[in-house]
Amino acid sequence: MNEIIRERLAAFRAGHELPELDDAKLFETFAAYCVLHQFHEERFEPELHRTGGGNDLGVDAWGIVINGDLHHDLAGVRQAVEANREMNVVVIALQAKTSASAEGKVVADLADNLRQICARSPISYTASPEVMELHEALGLIYDHQHRLTEHSPRLEVRYVHCGQEANVDLLEKCRSAESAIDEIGRFQSVRFAAVGWRELDRLYKLTNRKVKAKFDWPNRSAIPAMEGVKEAWVGTIPASEFVERLLVDEGGSIRKFLFEDNLREFLGQSNEVNDGIAQTLADPVKRKRFAVLNNGITVIATSFDTSGNECHMSRFQIVNGCQTGHVLFENRDKLTDDVHVKLTVIEPESEGIAADITIATNRQTEIASDDLRADQKIHRDIEEYFLIQRQPRDLYYERRSGQYDARSVTMTRVIKQSQLIQAYASVFRGHVHEASRTAKLRSDPALRIFHADSHPIAYYTAAAIWYQVDWLLRNNHLDRKWKPARFMLMAAAVRRFAKGLDLPQSPRFAERHCEMLLKQIWNRDEVERLVCLMIPHLEKLLETEASKQRLHDLARTKGFTERFLEAVAEVE
User: Fold this and answer.
1) 364, 312 in Cβ contact below 8 A?
2) Domain encompassing residue 188
3) Using N-to-C axis directions, what is the helix angle for 417-428 and 456-474, rounded to 10°?
4) Which residues of 439-449 are buried (b: 16+ CB within 10 A; e: fewer)?
5) How many domains does the chain have?
6) Residues 197, 205: contact at Cβ < 8 Å?
7) Model confidence pLDDT, tens digit, residues 77-126
8) Which residue range or ranges hold the Abortive phage infection protein C-terminal domain (predicted)?
9) Is the peptide bond before 19 cis (omega within 30 degrees of 0)?
């Protein structure tokens, strides 16, 4: 193996807490991380995408990006298909080998296998469950091809190795592979590329790069100087420039993480306001007046520099304009040169000023001011509670996208908001079967997730069991086939530790309850022992399941999850 890549792997092993993964699996995970990040810039768990093993047909990892979200299983793809009226789809598959030279036969064999995997007809070869999931996920997307955007779906294939960059012969084999896969007629475009050690090193460096944007903005004016703001600009920009330069990543998917500081989720095209925006863009006359018919976009940037008409911006968030941004993306084929959008860019001097701007720019919406303040406060309280914990119990709540990127923390200990919602809803709100539906959970008032009177220690407790089960899966202490049951196992472990008692409402009793749980949760050996005792019960339930559905689907049903929790209630 190349020495530079060996050093990168060592850093990757430490940074992703994979001490017990063997070198071959580690390299597959590393390659998946580097390649998939090219198409999805938000943080994700690369180990979940790895398929390497028996009967993998040469596909060591795969992922499907749908409208900016990266999916690693059939359940996620199904949820995305159900939720989106229009889909921009990028399918990524890769094979990773540590050999110091590239082999043309690998390219040909992988192309042949992908023709089987991507075709409509059943795979004639023996295939692993993960590869079968990819086949079925593609079939699901094909079933809804009327929703696909003009240049979708795309297939991106990478052969990752530790040798030199591709020579003429290998490049020709890649072109032949593209033609062979393209013949099945399932993709708008197919790209097959060999990635040598230099390109792999480049891709790894990109994973540590902060999100930046470079764009032309001649129609801007400086806002007069004011206390707490380094500088601010306002003006109009071609909507197509905004979408192409700021809103989408290298893979052509919307950067959904840019809206994490926005206080409202995208409400969908069926929403009355968003439907009105879309109708304006569809009207050849009205869309020319878009800049005065729409409130526009407000961006807060950590750094904003200009050189003539050229602007450079890094670590930025769209704090107002989530609906407008999504509708512009979904209607980007209608963004002619005469469609402009209002843009305000603010570089604040402090995080407190940024929070005030976020709240102020959202007062024009239906979100009440008191709710805005409360929403900000509970997230800060949770973040502060995480920060006072000490090793080895240190975890970090990512209240804002990328806030720990520049800090020397282990990224597997950083808990995203979506992960915290999943964990909290599973272990304390009894919604194990809906854990993957984060938007639904977040917006359900009955669940009171991130409510102003929430207990920060409860969120930390939920994050702790998430982290422990995730560690067991990442390091193969639990067979990866149990990944779909992770929320069931988390909920069952917490219920068992709590002896069936629910989280108390009283802050004082809730704190005692969680402290008792944490003493057991942070004993990894005990968590592993308990979870491993539960697996046979899960296997038995699967064997006796009359519907014969797979675990991925059963874990999303209330009946199955409740039967499992009941079956393991007394496990010792």
Assistant:
1) no
2) 3-208
3) 100
4) eebeeeeebeb
5) 3
6) no
7) 998 898 888 888 999 999 999 998 888 899 999 999 999 999 999 998 88
8) 259-544
9) no
Q: Does residue 431 contact residue 441 with C-beta atoms inside 8 Å?
A: yes
92 touches 160 (CB < 8 A) = no
Q: Quick one: tokens of 502?
A: 């629910």
Q: Is 280 exposed, middle or buried (0-12, 13-18, 19+ CB in 10 A)?
A: buried
Name every residue whose Cβ is closer than 8 Å to that of residue 75 and which is 6 or more positions away in sequence. 436, 484, 552, 553, 555, 556
Spatial CB neighbours of 232, under 8 Å, sequence gap ≥ 6: 222, 223, 226, 344, 345, 346, 347
- For residues 166 and 278, membership in a common domain is answered with no
Q: What angle do CA 280, 286, 290 make, to 5 degrees?
A: 75
Model pTM score:
0.72
Say whether the peptide bond before residue 445 is cis (omega within 30 degrees of 0).
no
CA atoms within 13 A on the CB side of 76: 18
Counting Cα atoms < 13 Å in the Cβ hemisphere of 224 gives 0
DSSP designation for 409: -
Is 60 in the same domain as 186?
A: yes
Same domain (yes/no): 187, 233? no
Neighbour-count burial of 546, counting CB atoms closer than 10 A to its CB (0-12 exposed, 13-18 middle, 19+ buried): exposed
pLDDT (tens digit, 9 = 90+) per residue, 276-335? Answer: 999 999 999 999 999 999 989 999 988 898 888 999 988 788 888 888 999 999 888 899
Q: Do residues 87 and 150 make contact, with C-beta atoms less than 8 angstroms apart?
A: no
Q: Say what angle helices 507-521 and 456-474 make with each other, to 10 degrees.
A: 20
**Mind giving me the DSSP string for 452-499?**
TT--HHHHHHHHHHHHHHHHHHHTTSS-GGGGGGHHHHHHHHHHHHTT
